[in-house]
Structures are given as C-alpha cells and as structure tokens.
TrEMBL record:
It comes from candidate division TA06 bacterium. Its cofactor is [4Fe-4S] cluster. Keywords: 4Fe-4S, Iron, Iron-sulfur, Metal-binding. Pfam families: LYTB. One of its GO terms (biological process) is dimethylallyl diphosphate biosynthetic process. This is 4-hydroxy-3-methylbut-2-enyl diphosphate reductase. InterPro entries: LytB/IspH.
Amino acid sequence: DRAWFRNSHKLGITAGASTPDWIIEDVIDLIGAGAEHTVLRGRAFH
C-alpha cells in the first residue's frame, strides 16, 4: 500500500545476514517501482 510512504522522505530497509541479496534487491525494486523519488542503494555494516 503506497499510502504507507506518502509523507516519507527516507526509507531504510534492513535484513539479516542470511537473507539472500536477490530478495533484498526484489524488495527495493518493488518499493521503488513507480516511485517519484530517487532510489539510492548502499550498504551499512555495524
């Protein structure tokens, strides 16, 4: 439901170490599809 993101300026996605990269990429693609925003991809390790 895109209404969840209506007033959002930033969105972070987290995943466990065992989550395959392709699943994370699919989620990013799904959320970013049709978005009027710039999608930036990066990785952070803590």
